[in-house]
Structure formats: structure tokens, C-alpha cells
């Protein structure tokens, strides 16, 4: 039997998603749905993941994140901004608290034309610096693991020409030191400018990563290389992170609704 599912295609700083409101159209197999709808070259709409909006007993809503490969992420900062816009437009909730696998996350609409949204993220837990092998036989020696409700590794390099994102990112994502996989972020410091490229667990190269932006900002602030608020230049645009150690950081960025339609499954 064919089922019609309303979807919203959206993105946060270029990190793109398909939103499905399971309060309206629950999915029997969200993993299979995500793999099909996220495909960019096989009849899908093309996306980094699917955001499932559901009911919550204690908060305004619940968000699940299914990556393009069908794996489930604990949290997604850019996706949360997209869900916050959805809840604002569809439920009239301008300041929402959303249940996630990483715990409850607060959101606040800063402005609507265009949408600019603040997300209260999980407090970063910064690990000890480590060394990781490079594909060319050398080593990355400025490497810091960070937990922001999901796993990240922040790698500061002199120049992005020194890396092969697809090769180095994929290898580090599956490094045995990260038994559940990890999100990988390469950072280049160019005076006052901070550039970041991302390799996300379960999605590959993306235009932006919200939790990754928090991880990067936390490492740079903790090591004295940046001060709050931190502006990060990512392939999809700009992300802002404000943080004082001992508190929860705030991620600020856009949320773009690309289109709404109904798909058949």
C-alpha cells in the first residue's frame, strides 16, 4: 500500500534535511525512508539526514536524527534550528524545548526575516590532545576529542591543502579509538578568521555541522586561540558560538525552508 507523507525540505547553513512530522505521518521504517529520500543520485531528494518530529511527554516536541546512511545521531545543531523554525511556523512555538537523545535542548527565535535561531547546546566535554595518522604517512598532532552529546574530533591544520577530506575524514571517523565512530572537523586559523570543513559520521562531507561548530569553538577557546563569541566560516556560511566554561554554549545560525511537498512511500 502506498502512503503519502508530507515533508519539508530545509537547511541550516547549507546542512540540509528532510523534516517528517510523525505526529501527523508516522513512519514504519524511518531508516529505509532516510536512505531513499536522502539519496542525491538515485531518485531521492538529496539530504544529509531526516529529522523526525514527534510528541514528548515532558517537552514541546521530540527530535530524532536519522543520517543519510540510516544511522541515528544523538543530536544535530543545524537540524535543531530547522526543527525550531518548523515548530514556530506550524505550532506557534517561538521558544521551544525539544527532547533529543543528547537530552533536552532549548531554542529561541531571534528574528524571522530571515530566520535566525539560537540553540542552547550541551556543555562540551573536552578530552586530552592525541595524535592521529595521516594518509600520506605523516601525523596530525593538534587533535582534540570533544563530546557535545555526540562525539567529535577537532584537528587544527596549517592549510586545507594538507588534507584529503574524503580520505582522512572517512578513516578518522572509523578509527578504533572512537568505537562508536566520530564526527571529524579540520580547522585552519587565518589571523582572526577561523575556517572549518566537516566530515560527519553517517553523512560524509557536509556544508556545516552545528554540534561540530560548538566542539571547534570550545577547543579554540579552551586553548586560548579564540574568545567568545566565535564566528566560524564553514562551506555553507557562518555559524556563531558563545560559551563560558561551566555553562551551556549557544549556537546561532539560519534556518531555511526550501520547499514543502508530499512524497509517496
Automatic annotation (TrEMBL):
Gene: dapF
HAMAP family linked: DAP_epimerase
Protein name: Diaminopimelate epimerase
GO MF entries: diaminopimelate epimerase activity
Pathway this chain belongs to: Amino-acid biosynthesis; L-lysine biosynthesis via DAP pathway; DL-2,6-diaminopimelate from LL-2,6-diaminopimelate: step 1/1
Active site (record annotation): 76 (proton donor), 76, 209 (proton acceptor)
Lineage: Bacteria, Bacillati, Vulcanimicrobiota, Vulcanimicrobiia, Vulcanimicrobiales
Assembly description: Homodimer.
Keyword terms, alphabetized: Amino-acid biosynthesis, Cytoplasm, Isomerase, Lysine biosynthesis
Organism, as annotated: Vulcanimicrobium alpinum
Compartment annotation: Cytoplasm
Catalytic activity: (2S,6S)-2,6-diaminopimelate = meso-2,6-diaminopimelate
InterPro entries reported for this sequence: DAP_epimerase_AS, DAP_epimerase_DapF
Record-marked site positions (Could be important to modulate the pK values of the two catalytic cysteine residues): 152, 200
Residue positions binding substrate: 15, 67, 77-78, 150, 183, 200-201, 210-211
Any one Gene Ontology cellular component term annotated for this protein: cytosol
Family matches, as SUPFAM superfamilies: Diaminopimelate epimerase-like
